[in-house]
Amino acid sequence: MTADGAIVTAPETISPEARQDWREVVQVGLIGGVIAIYLCLVGIVPLFDGRPLVATVISLGETVLLASLAVPGAVAARRARTPRVAVASGAVAGLLAGGALTLLVIAGSVVNLRGFMLNASPELYALLTFGLGVGGSWIPALVGAAMGALAAAFWLLPDRFRSPLVRGLLSILILGLFGGLLRERLQAAGLGEIGRLLFSFEGVTVTGAILIFVGVVGGRILRQRISFRARFDTLPETRQRQLRIPFLLLVIAFASSLPLLLGPAFAMVTALVALYILMGLGLNITLGLAGLLDLGFVAFYAVGAYTVGLLTSTAEFGLLNLPFWAAVPFAVLFAMLFGAILGLPILGIRGDYLAIATLGFGEIIRILVGSDLLKGLLGGPRGIINIPKPIDVPSTNFLAGPVQIYYIAIAFALLVAFVAWRLRGSRLGRAWVAIREDEDVAEAVGINLIQTKLLAYMLGAAFAGLGGAISAALVGSIFPSSIQLLISINVVALIIVGGMGSIPGVFIGALFLIGIPELFREFQDYRLLFYGLALIAMMRFRPEGLLPSGIVRRELHVPENEPPPNVPAGERAPG
Amino acid sequence: MNARLLERLTELAIHTFLWSFRIVVIVVVLVGSFLTLAGGRHGLGTWIDLAVSGAALGSVYALIALGYTMVYGILRMINFAHGEVFMGGAFAGYFTAIALDGAGFLNASPFASIVSVVIMIFVAAAVATGIALLLERFAYRPLRNAPRLVPLISAIGASFFLQYSFRGFFGPGIYAYPGITFLSQPAPIPFLRMQWVEVLVIVSAIVMMTVLYLFVMRTKIGTAIRAVSEDKNTAALMGIDVNRSIVMTFAVGAAMAGAAGVLYALLFRQVTFFVGFIPGIKAFTAAVLGGIGNVPGAMLGGLFLGEIESIGPILFLDGLGVPSPNQLKDVIAFTMLVLVLVFRPSGILGERVSRDRA
Question: How far apart are CA A469 and CA A477, in angstroms?
Fold first, then answer.
């Protein structure tokens, strides 16, 4: 790409047809092809193929594949000026993307790709060619062209038609993903008839898909478009504040009835989400407010978990047999103490070094808890078992299982949220934000850097310890194998996706990154792949997160219309 | 008045703490070493063996560290996904080795084995370079002017994306490198019990580092890279293509990491999707140890870290009665990381980048 050529618009005198940049169309098609091949070979398409979206009609894998062919079509068509050119570019891009899959099928029949690519299996080729094998290798290209053209045509529709259709398709997708769960819940609620009509064991039924689509599209078209959001924004501020209270109450009511709504099968998932909300809110003080990227969160989690284990366990290695509630303060205090001990030496170093140093701490603690050195104290790989539940109720009680952990974690999370919210406006909170913005200036205006950072780090550590303590009670045991780097990454990722420094962002982030992957356990292997992609995409397109706090948005988001200095203009052009 | 007193007190506490931290580390090292040596459970032969394997490991770390140090020098960012570039090289080397083994070339003669390893290194370097260029283009370049944490987080994301993409492609299993009989034979070097594989790793690392050093110091593009590291804007004014220099930096660093992947896999004879993570962090330690941005420093730091990791557990901990000290070799490496970051963030040779803060 030349430095300037990519974004300079052509003069008006050239006819609209000539404007279509076919090179870009080809480029988009080829990138689409690479992505389609990637999705196939990395195993997402074959794995998702096992999960029906609309029963007997289409699987999730096929949906992903079709989408990977349709998206290049829509992207290629977006700059075209006439419908015919748009559809043609869409078809070309789709053809190229599908053609890549055709090449994959042919290559697979010539060379034994399976020798090293696990997923280049006959099943994949059968999926790509409707079971025809090499003889049907033309099929992906043709389907690609059709999907590309279709997507381009779809893109041409005026927004008032396109938007309801998109909503309709998305509703089928979302309800299809949760089909089994919804069917089961409707059955439990005595609405089994409706459940069976709309949903199959996995995904929606054909009737269900049609009904949902018609319902959503019809509803969108018929109803006068009322945007609550827009109306809310026009209200005076006092009125806005008044309206927020019932909204909050609604959210709280929903949250407290969530385990009832979802049923016992999902008690563990809700408990985990609540736990991660709690830990996310804790790290949000360290990372979101003070800007300290702590990749060693799991170290303090381990301290909390093992403290509770040692103090409460009735089995070997248990020291005091305390009840859970008596052990929690110690867990928090010890984690905080560890935060101080580990934080004191490293808080003077600069931000990116700090991240790596904390990562090192996480690894050190992880290795130490499983080592022979501490085997006599912490049990080595055998871990500590028989950690009592916080609330001792008979096993038939509603609160017996993970449900109690959910309520405990949510209660603590609200407490932490309150603390964080009050801190943010305080002198200390403003000092944190100042440090995050610019350390040198903050120091110059009289903020004691180490002291202030240390407080943030210790608070984060304390809440990590609390999280560890609760999770030890949730599982009832603690092993070195449960002290994983993944925990630190989970917490950091959910804060970044939700929005650094934003309290509602943590809730959203935990819901998206912890809740949804837990619901689809068969996709576990790809969880971190999606996390990685989410982190890159967030940093690229929305570094402030999904629900950002105002300051962070201003700080992190590069304004669109004024490119920063030293960057040639071409780099900012899409593509 | 009260606030100032408090401030003084915290400062005092911090200083006391840091000093006691230093003293504890020094005492552990000195007392541990003394007790181990006085105990006399390990003969001179053991120490020499450990030093040799430390040198082999250290040269691998040094090769990876070069990528970290050069990228940090030019962009002031930690390329967290560099370990995954290394892993990609190890995988590429594995599949090349399998292909060569299938053709009956790998073990045909000692000469054929060495040629095979050279081919593996070249393929691995090419694949690793490809991965790094994609990484630079899609994960880093759009963020070049963003605040420092932004590209770091993107790099962490890229690291996990690459790891789990490889897991998806090749599965979670451990791939055992095909055995090369020649390499596991002892090399005829007096006083040192070395296998050919260790000789090969050390020699090829030295050759590659020499080539890289000459490339950076003597060629035109190397000069351009150094100029851009020094000052991007001025370099651009002098007619240097900044973008090209940055891309070249990534390419060269990745080629070294890819080659290191093959050497590491030859030493440990296996490769998994997770193989790059820990060596990646250690190589970063090595880069900081030598002074980040400093090319000879990275080589020195890598070697030093390899030796510490190899000799350290037994020398420092065995005498103190720590059971199975080798379990804790990563603890020693990471402690080393923290110690360097805290007490000498500019490294042994001093860093070439200005001491600006995040």
Answer: 10
- Residue B43 domain-assigned? no
CB of A258 closer than 8 Å to CB of A507: no
Q: Name which of B95, B147, B357 is nearest A440 (Cβ-Cβ).
A: B357
Query: What is the rounded end-to-end Cα distance, in angstroms, of chain A?
Result: 9
Instruction: Delimit the domains of chain A by residue range.
Output: 268-485
Residue A240 has a CB neighbour count (10 Å cut-off) of: 12
Task: Indicate the residue of A291, A367, A528 with minimum beta-carbon distance to B164.
Answer: A528
pTM: 0.86
> What is the tens place of the pLDDT at every residue in B22-44?
888 888 888 888 888 887 777 78
Question: Going by C-beta distance under 8 Å and a sequence separation of 6 or more, which residues neighbour residue A377?
Answer: A310, A317
For B187, the enclosing helix (H) or strand (E) is strand B186-187
Q: Is residue B39 part of a domain?
A: no
Q: How far apart are CA A79 and CA A85, in angstroms?
A: 10
Tell if the CB–CB gap between A539 and B162 is shorter than 8 Å: no
- CB of B59 within 8 Å of a chain A CB? The answer is no
- From the list B161, B278, B323, the residue facing A536 with the nearest CB is B161
Which sign does the torsion angle of CA A205, A211, A214, A216 carry? negative
Q: Is residue B348 part of a domain?
A: no
Which residues numbered 189-218 in B keep a CB inside 8 Å of some CB on A? none
Rounded to whole angstroms, how far apart are CA atoms A65 and A381?
Answer: 43
Look at residues A43, A60, A40 and name the one whose alpha carbon lies nearest to residue A173. A60
Task: Flag whether B321 is in a domain.
Answer: no
**Distance between CA atoms of A220 and A197, rounded to whole angstroms?**
23
Q: Measure Cα distances from A214 to A54, A198, A209, A307, B24 in Å.
A: 15, 13, 8, 56, 72
Q: Does B29 touch chain A (CB under 8 A)?
A: no
Closest by CA position to A133, among listed A121, A124, A125, A144 = A125
SS3 content of chain A, % helix, strand, coil (to 5): 75, 0, 25
What is the span of the domain harbouring residue B248? 57-287
pLDDT tens for each residue of B185-230: 887 777 777 888 888 889 899 999 999 989 988 999 999 988 888 8
